[in-house]
């Protein structure tokens, strides 16, 4: 099986230093980049699928030129090659621009499954997988908690998380799947993997290389006009004391706020 | 041209979801601010009851009977209906920020190239565009965004507005489904309900959360008991989900649910950034943690320093005593 995984470099949420620049775009110098958390689940699922069924995992990113650094982390987990779409004219691209670019880049790859994260930790739009699927005319299997391909039958079955539990859904391959944490924790790259990743190919493509992509020339379809830190919460009260006393404090607090 | 603002509703067990009533209210309010029109859409195998309910919020509702959504995923079919309405003049599409809503939004962005503003926690009309507030970067910033063009798509978070029915009831226009879905639709072979996933975490007024400090499946007993006593719903951190004490459907945070309850009560939760993203806009936050330096303290209104296995049972007893007396 050939699996292509969409991996987005995002500011490391654990570093806690993400911020927006004066133009309200992401200030990428503020924080180290990591592979988006949900994309790591997608990558782990892809690696397990090729371990079971044979084949190859490749990754695709649209990012600034230094996106290769973050992509190496994904290659170190076991993906064998990468494609990076990078173009000055894509700086600050929104969802409406990102979707056709990723779709065009994916269209020039051969794959049975195209995996993406359910959403991203920086923007959390959660719409790219569906958009790419629609542009490629492929079925979308979203919010995957388990992925079971049947290569002989050319079909794939997914457990899709629902409000009540999960739905079992199925579609012919090639198909697009958006992936959740419920697929299982990603592996840590081995030292051998990290070494091997250094020499793996990351093909760079400009917008022009992708042919005729409908990306707007006169500005993006959306604009950020302001960004503020979230309103600070009033400082809370700290209670120490015997359990009975603490319990009374909690109940008084709840009663005071009409919560009981 | 005045905008025509479409609220796409979702149906659960025959009636509108709470979020859908809010999305409908929002589209009516925006249309009033913009001097435009508001329309509602229901796409379901049996849409009648939900469409009638939606018409209490909106002047006009399109009710599509789509037998296909009984055994195929909803979004490609719903998107086909939205496209028909776009051809008829709809300029703005509002969906709930749910999996189905996002699938619809993404499909539409892919097909139409329209601008998409995600996860609105507040929306007003400003000049010629909706103006959307959304929390980004793991709740580090709240951005205000607008659409550059005359059309676009918004996904709306729960509790962005308070649902309010309209002064007068609207009309319902029944329709047969479009000939084909807007994109290939996966087949639904089975719908499985899991224990522990019934009560809606996102809609709960009170959420009681057990973190790693709860230490075991049995440890969740005290969390469950307190939730039951308060009429609340149980939530979890990733640590307690990963440990297998509680299903993933209960997880709050970046890769779980985003909740905005009247009360968040956390037991043995450290308050990692990825968890706080999902809960820090709760109206009241009360936590019990034996580590006074736990980062959850930064957002707590009341921080009880103590052992949850001592404070928890005492709290349960106190709640029961007050209720009894
Ligand atoms: C990509 C990514 C996505 C993530 N998404 C999420 C997410 O969606 N949701 C989420 O929750 N996390 C998420 N995390 C994980 C997050 O970083 C934390 O690891 C997790 O939230 C910690 O859970 P916890 O607070 O239960 O555990 P811990 O951090 O281990 O905290 C346990 C707390 O319990 C206290 N405690 C222990 N015993 C007792 C006792 N007897 N009485 C009182 N207090 C006690 C301790 O003092 C401690 O503060 C994500 C991480 C990554 C990398
Ligand atoms: N710039 C990008 N490069 C590669 N993949 C992306 C990019 N943006 C989004 N994706 C993929 O789409 C998923 C959902 O992203 P989003 O819809 O932006 O929340 C991510 O988890 C990635 O798998």
Structure, described:
The complex is a heterodimer of chains A (260) and B (325). Chain A is of the alpha/beta class. Chain A is 28% helix and 28% strand. A nine-stranded mixed β-sheet of chain A has the order 9-8-7-10-6-1-4-5-11, sandwiched between helices. The longest helix of chain A is centred in the N-terminal third of the chain and has 17 residues. The N and C termini of chain A lie far apart (56 Å). By secondary structure, chain B is α/β, with parallel strands linked by helices. Chain B has eight helices and 17 strands. In chain B, the strands form three sheets. Chain B has a nine-stranded mixed β-sheet with strand order 9-8-7-10-6-1-4-5-11, with helices on both faces. In chain B, helix 3 crosses helix 4 and helix 5 packs parallel to helix 8. The radius of gyration of chain B is 21 Å and the shape is elongated. The mean pLDDT of chain B is 95. The site of adenosine monophosphate has 22 residues of chain A, from helix 1, strand 4, helix 3, strand 6 and helix 4.
Write the layout of secondary structure elements.
The complex is a heterodimer of chains A (260) and B (325).
Chain A: E1 2-6, E2 9-11, E3 33-35, H1 37-53, E4 56-62, H2 67-77, E5 81-85, H3 95-107, E6 113-117, H4 128-136, E7 140-150, E8 155-161, E9 165-172, E10 175-179, H5 191-198, E11 202-205, E12 222-228, E13 237-240, H6 243-256
Parallel strand pairs in A: 1-4, 1-6, 4-5, 5-11, 6-10, 7-10
Antiparallel strand pairs in A: 2-3, 7-8, 8-9
Helix pairs in contact in A: 2-5, 3-4
Chain B: E1 4-8, E2 11-12, E3 15-16, H1 18-34, E4 37-44, H2 48-54, E5 60-65, H3 74-87, E6 92-96, H4 99-112, E7 115-126, E8 129-136, E9 141-147, E10 152-156, E11 171-176, E12 187-193, E13 206-210, H5 220-230, E14 233-236, H6 238-242, E15 263-267, H7 273-276, E16 284-289, E17 302-305, H8 308-324
Parallel strand pairs in B: 1-4, 1-6, 4-5, 5-11, 6-10, 7-10, 13-14, 13-15, 15-16, 16-17
Antiparallel strand pairs in B: 2-3, 7-8, 8-9
Helix pairs in contact in B: 3-4, 5-8
Bound molecules: flavin-adenine dinucleotide (FAD) and adenosine monophosphate.
